[in-house]
Each structure stands twice: as structure tokens, then as C-alpha cells.
């Protein structure tokens, strides 16, 4: 496959620049940012609104980047998902679990490339609405999409009790992306679409093959149903009781040699019927 050969060449050329354990590095960075922002936002001047929260200086806002705040290109990647410690811990664990699995499955370089493509697409899309802030929420969700595509039957235990197949979580993510595209503002539309570019770049060939296979399967099913529709409802029917070989597949049917025409009878009436002399009778 052309795409796989291209990936191999890229890995041979740039593989030495790959960052190992990238998922762990992102999680640790987000934990540090969460601790620092929580502490600094507790200051009275921040709580009173006199000073903006620390995280406000970390979002990717293209207008601010053009004014010289270039660090935003990197810092939006290490923003924690929320300020709720319980949700964040669950998120960080799942992100580390799925990201590390992908890193082992693909190798450091291909996993780095997957996130890099998503990052570049998200950063580029942000400039379509330069006054709005771009976040890493959709980008990190594509790690779940890739993991679910490769491990659809993996189960996540909510509260360590309720098992939920990861493929259902992926469908919720896709629903969120579609909803953002349909009802979100232009900034959200651009960010949502850009965030899944890496998924389609990496899994597009497989998706296309799945669509083609689905079409072939549907065509085969339609042909089979058409053949079944052309088949007779039954092959044998008793002229006395009306039972058919479809009603009772174990019943034995015979044609009477003394009746005029082709008169079929079940085993119960083969020797217990009135012989017909008129085929139409």
C-alpha cells in the first residue's frame, strides 16, 4: 500500500526525532499546569476578576500569537481538560492508557506523527477565526477514536463497575464532532473538522475498504434475497390436507400413479384418498 510505504520512508528519515513516551509527557505536563493554575488562581486578585486566570494566557488565540505571544502554539496542548480534579484524573488515566497502547502498537514515530498531523490541522484551523480560542479537547479525543478503531471490543469500567465498550465512547465522540459542525460557531466547526484530519489520514484507506466491503456485502445480500424471492413457496403440497414440505420438512410426499395428472399426497393420505380421474378436480 502506498500509504504504508510512505510511512516507512518517513520513519527511516525522521524516526530519530520522535519523542518517546509522548503520552506520559503530555499527561505530566497537564498535571503540572493544573497544579500551578489552581494555586495561582486562588490569589484574591484573580478571584476578584482584577487579573485574568493563568490558563487564559495558554489558549491558542491566533490574534494573540500575531501580537507576539508565540508560546500559545505549544501551551494549548498542555491545558488540563477541566478544573475538576476527579474528572481530570479519569481523563488522564484513560488518555495515558490509550495513548501508550497506540505508541506500543505503532511505535514512537507513527504515534508522534498521528498527533503532529492533528496538531498542525488544529493550529491551522484556528487562524480561520483568529479571535477565538482553540483548545486541545477534540485533538485528544482522536486518540480515543484511533484506539477504538483498533480495539473496538475493549471495555472501560465506569466507576470500576459498569462496563462500556470503547466503540460506544467513540460513537459519542463522533456525535460530538458532528454536533459541533452542525450547530457550533465557525471556530468550533473548524476545530472539530481539523481535529479528525489525522484519523482520516491514518485510517482513510481502511475506511474506504470497509465501505467497499460493505457495498459488496449489501449487493450479495440483495442478490440472495432476490433468489429467495424467485423460489417457490413450496415444492410439494398434499391435495387432501394442504400440508407442504415447508410446513413439515420431515414429511414424506409421493405422487399417486392411479390419479389423473400430478397429484401429490403426504404420507398420511397417500393410501387414504379418493383417486382423481379428472386432473382439474
UniProtKB/TrEMBL annotation:
It is a multi-pass membrane protein. Keywords: Membrane, Transmembrane, Transmembrane helix. One of its GO terms (cellular component) is membrane. Its main location: membrane. It is found in: Membrane. The keyword Hydrolase does not apply. The chain crosses the membrane at residues 21-40, 73-97, 109-127, 157-184. This is Peptidase S54 rhomboid domain-containing protein.
Amino acid at each position: 500500500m502506498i500509504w504504508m510505504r510512505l510511512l516507512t520512508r518517513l520513519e527511516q528519515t525522521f524516526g530519530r526525532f520522535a519523542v518517546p513516551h509522548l503520552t506520559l509527557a503530555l499527561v505530566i505536563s497537564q498535571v503540572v499546569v493544573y497544579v500551578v493554575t489552581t494555586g495561582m488562581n486562588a490569589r484574591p486578585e484573580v478571584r476578584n476578576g482584577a487579573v485574568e486566570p493563568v490558563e487564559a494566557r495558554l489558549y491558542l488565540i491566533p490574534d494573540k500569537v500575531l501580537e507576539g505571544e508565540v508560546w500559545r502554539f505549544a501551551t494549548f496542548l498542555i491545558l488540563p481538560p477541566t478544573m475538576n480534579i476527579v474528572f481530570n484524573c479519569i481523563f488522564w488515566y484513560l488518555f495515558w492508557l490509550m495513548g501508550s497502547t497506540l505508541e506500543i502498537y505503532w511505535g514512537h514515530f507513527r504515534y508522534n506523527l498521528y498527533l503532529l498531523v492533528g496538531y498542525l490541522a488544529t493550529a491551522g484551523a484556528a487562524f480561520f477565526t483568529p479571535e477565538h480560542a482553540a483548545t486541545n479537547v477534540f485533538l485528544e479525543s482522536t486518540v480515543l477514536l484511533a484506539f477504538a478503531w483498533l480495539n473496538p471490543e475493549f471495555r472501560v469500567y465506569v466507576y470500576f463497575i459498569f462496563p462500556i465498550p470503547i466503540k460506544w465512547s467513540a460513537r459519542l465522540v463522533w456525535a460530538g464532532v458532528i454536533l459541533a459542525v452542525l450547530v457550533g460557531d465557525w471556530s468550533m466547526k473548524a476545530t472539530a473538522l481539523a481535529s479528525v484530519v489525522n484519523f482520516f489520514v491514518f485510517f482513510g484507506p481502511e475506511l474506504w475498504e470497509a465501505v467497499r466491503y460493505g457495498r459488496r456485502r449489501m449487493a450479495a445480500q440483495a442478490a440472495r434475497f432476490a433468489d429467495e424471492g424467485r423460489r417457490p413457496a413450496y415444492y410439494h403440497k398434499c391435495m387432501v390436507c394442504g400440508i407442504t414440505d415447508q410446513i413439515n420438512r420431515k414429511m414424506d410426499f409421493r405422487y399417486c400413479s392411479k390419479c389423473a395428472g400430478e397429484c401429490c399426497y403426504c404420507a398420511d393420505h397417500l393410501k387414504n384418498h379418493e383417486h382423481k380421474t379428472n386432473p382439474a378436480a
